[in-house]
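STRUCTURE:
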């Protein structure tokens, strides 16, 4: 009888630890999304392209830049005119799944098409 109570208490303790780990990890993940930039710089959107490679839209003051990010360097791909950016959509909510975020795929296609025409 004593071993059954001991086994049940270990099982309950294990389930409690797993649940608390889940809750802590979930709240930690939400906290990371709250702060997406400083007062003068902000990463508006980021699209991973592979291991250690991505493209991003960054706001620096009132200027917007389309950058390429690799493991060893960051490259400026284009400066984006302010009228191509829906700044209100980015600033209204810091969460990437929120309504009002600019369609990153549309901007990426526009600038890659423009780059192909320049060649």
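SEQUENCE:
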């Amino acid at each position: 009888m004593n071993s059954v109570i001991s086994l049940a208490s270990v099982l309950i303790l294990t389930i409690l630890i797993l649940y608390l780990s889940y809750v802590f990890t979930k709240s930690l993940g939400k906290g990371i999304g709250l702060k997406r930039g400083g007062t003068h710089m902000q990463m508006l959107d980021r699209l991973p392209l592979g291991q250690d490679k991505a493209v991003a839209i960054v706001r620096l003051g009132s200027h917007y830049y389309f950058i390429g990010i690799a493991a060893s360097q960051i490259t400026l791909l284009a400066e984006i005119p302010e009228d191509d950016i829906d700044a209100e959509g980015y600033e209204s909510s810091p969460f990437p799944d929120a309504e009002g975020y600019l369609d990153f795929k549309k901007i990426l296609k526009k600038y890659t098409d423009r780059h192909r025409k320049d060649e």
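REMARK: The longest strand covers residues 41-50.
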